[in-house]
Write a structure and sequence with these properties.
The structure holds 2 protein chains of 2 kinds. Chain A has one domain: Rossmann fold (3-Layer(aba) Sandwich). Chain A is 24% helix and 26% strand. Chain A contains 5 helices and 10 strands; from the N terminus they run αββαβββαβββαβαβ. The longest helix of chain A has 16 residues. By secondary structure, chain B is of the alpha+beta class. Helix content of chain B is 58%, strand content 16%. A 5-stranded antiparallel β-sheet of chain B has the order 2-1-5-4-3. The two termini of chain B are 72 Å apart. Classes of the chains: A alpha/beta, B alpha+beta. The interface between A and B is medium-sized, with 17 and 13 residues.
């Protein structure tokens, strides 16, 4: 199996894989289908779509396996792993691990204005102006979306995706 | 009628089939389109594993009552969502089949791949009821059937009308013509009530028949008249013939009795002349005896004449037999007797030995006797004569002749030869009564033949005769 490894990526994730994170990995990949990035996000039409993981990687090899050999609109997919937000450069989908929960506000503040689809599963992730949040209800993985945050990131989220999610409007949120 | 009905039914069937096919095609296209839209709407539900949303998407199908069931399968062909909600096999298949439209007897179903980008997320299955379509087709078929039946009824009515208008009058005309030609009955008329061209035709036909009938009647009348005339004529001819025969018989009886009665005084004249010569010969002297000789000669001659006349008369009455006759033999007998009677004459007889004929031997003997005696008589002045009895090839060898090289006759008077008492020579030159050839002619006529002569003065005469010329 061919695995893209980011320049700053930690060594291959030897994390124990769980069904929950396997599913979340799939969702990360699927988001790329239902979100449109501004044209200037990519250097050219062959520039791959980057899915990044910030903090401790909970997916292990699962995410790499899912995106391997996949392409969306002629773009390949690559996975990058970052230890801190400063390392995040060109990235379209960024999963912010629970390990970063305490630093969530500064991380999101730093990413503000960049066309990055931020995804997290920490409590109140979307309230804190994260764009897509995973929640678990009745053992089912649910989505919450902060449309204002998506707007700020100049991302267009497909109505099909929106149909699957709970739309959250934070009161007096950052922005 | 059968042709047009078949054509109508075929056309109707074709219409229905075409309608059914196009309806099916339309339905298939519609279903594919709808399945495509639904598949597009259910990509996110499949991608984010949201069966509730998928069920909602599928629930939109309830606006179409013809949709029986629908189902979404995920990328591993597991049942993901159904319509109606909670439907389970066998209402929906446990796993999707091959992509595309599939027709069953009562249903049409489609398997539509659900694809986002290049990624196949699952399969959409929709099953619709064809009862609506089938009912539509049936209704259409019913309408077409009604139209076809209506057309047939109208066509039948039209053809019946046409038949009454055209075919029937023509048939009546043809039947009338046939009846006329079969029975030769010109009183037949074509019955017609129409006042169109066919009526005109029938009228002309009837006029023609009337004309023919008129002429036929006239012809028959004239035929009857002609037959009557003919009968009249025959009756008159028969009457005349009978009259003629009667008078002929009377004439013959008269001449017979006259001839017979004449002989008695003749015998007296001869007898008493002889007695006078014997008893008073010396008193009469040489001159007186000479006169009496003349009287007796004349009386004898008159006797011969009377005999001939009696023979002639008898010939007409005598019954005639028909048998094979050898004319050569008869000729030989006659020439022998002639030669014996005057042995001093130098006459060469030439008789064809093959002269067989049919007829009455007695009468034919009379013919040959007369002709040969004639030849003998008219060659008497020649020192050496030649007389021939034979037959010639003329008319197939059935013409007999008697030829001599004697005095002959003038052809200008040949029509007088066979008339009784007509003589071409003076009695002083050649004796004769003038009855012989008349007798010969009568016998030949009774034998159905002809008699004619050829000759010239001084170079002999030839008498020809035929027998049974009419072939009887």
């Amino acid at each position: 199996m061919f695995v893209h490894a980011g320049a700053f990526a930690a060594a291959p994730p030897e994390v124990r894989r769980t069904p929950e994170y396997d599913l979340k990995a799939i969702f990360l990949f699927q988001f790329a289908h239902f979100v449109e990035w501004p044209a200037n996000t990519f250097r050219d039409e062959h520039t791959p779509i980057t899915i990044g993981v910030l903090g401790d990687d909970p997916f292990g090899a699962g995410l790499d396996e899912i995106v391997a050999n996949e392409a969306i609109g002629g773009r390949k997919l690559v996975v990058r792993r970052y230890q801190n937000v400063e390392q995040v450069d060109t990235c379209q989908v960024l999963f912010i691990s629970a390990s970063e929960a305490s630093r969530m506000a500064p991380i999101l503040a730093r990413l503000k204005g960049r066309s990055v689809l931020t995804v997290g599963d920490t409590k109140d992730f979307v309230i804190q102006n994260g764009i897509v949040g995973f929640t678990l209800a009745k053992k089912r993985l649910k989505l919450r979306i902060n449309l204002a945050a998506a707007d700020t990131a100049k991302l267009v989220i497909s109505s099909k995706l929106l149909r699957q999610a709970e739309i959250v409007r934070p009161k007096g949120g950052v922005g | 009628m059968l042709t047009s009905t078949t054509a109508l039914v075929l056309a109707g069937a074709a219409l229905v089939v075409r309608e059914a096919v196009s309806l099916r095609q339309l339905l298939g296209t519609e279903l594919s389109t709808r399945a495509g839209i639904l598949a597009g709407n259910s990509t996110a539900a499949l991608a984010f594993q949201n069966p509730e949303d998928a069920t909602q998407v599928l629930a939109a199908l309830k606006t179409d009552p013809s949709v029986v069931a629908a189902a979404l399968y995920d990328d591993r062909n597991r049942l993901f969502a159904t319509y109606p909600e909670g439907a389970a096999p066998p209402l929906v298949p446990a796993a999707p089949g091959s992509p595309g439209n599939h027709f069953e007897k009562q249903h049409l179903f489609v398997n539509q791949p659900v694809v986002e980008g290049e990624r196949r997320l699952g399969t959409l299955y929709i099953k619709t009821d064809l009862r609506e379509l089938n009912r539509g087709v049936r209704e259409h078929a019913l309408v077409v059937l009604c139209a076809v039946l209506g057309s047939i009824v109208v066509a039948f009515a039209l053809s019946t009308w046409l038949q009454r208008k055209i075919t029937r009058p023509v048939r009546i005309l043809a039947e009338a013509a046939q009846a006329v030609s079969e029975h030769k009955d010109y009183s037949i008329r074509a019955q017609t009530e129409s006042d169109d061209e066919l009526g005109l035709l029938a009228g002309s036909f009837n006029d023609m028949l009337a004309e023919i009938q008129e002429r036929d009647t006239a012809l028959r009348a004239s035929e009857v008249r002609l037959r009557q005339l003919n009968t009249d004529l025959e009756r008159r001819v028969a009457a005349r013939t009978a009259e003629l025969e009667n008078s002929n018989r009377e004439l013959e009886a008269f001449s017979y009795s006259v001839s017979h009665d004449l002989r008695a005084p003749l015998r007296s004249i001869d007898g008493f002349s002889k007695a006078l010569m014997e008893d008073c010969g010396e008193a009469l002297g040489q001159t007186g005896i000479g006169h009496l000789e003349r009287v007796r000669n004349s009386a004898r001659q008159m006797g011969v004449l009377i005999d001939d006349l009696l023979n002639l008369a008898r010939l007409s009455r005598a019954e005639m037999r028909r048998e094979p006759v050898d004319l050569a033999a008869i000729g030989k007998e006659i020439t022998t007797s002639l030669t014996e009677a005057q042995p001093e004459r130098q006459v060469t007889f030439v008789v064809d030995p093959n002269l067989r004929a049919d007829g009455d031997s007695q009468l034919l003997r009379v013919v040959l006797d007369n002709l040969l005696r004639n030849a003998w008589k008219f060659t008497s002045k020649k020192p050496a004569a030649r007389i021939e009895l034979g037959r010639t090839g003329e008319n197939g060898g059935t013409t007999f002749f008697v030829a001599d090289d004697g005095a002959g006759f003038d052809m200008a008077h040949s029509d007088l030869l066979f008339a009784p008492f007509q003589r071409l020579h003076r009695q002083s030159d050649f004796e004769g009564t003038g009855v012989g050839l008349a007798t010969v002619q009568r016998i030949i006529h009774r034998h159905g033949g002809r008699l004619w002569a050829q000759g010239a003065v001084g170079s002999g005469a030839t008498f020809y005769f035929t027998l049974w010329e009419a072939g009887s």
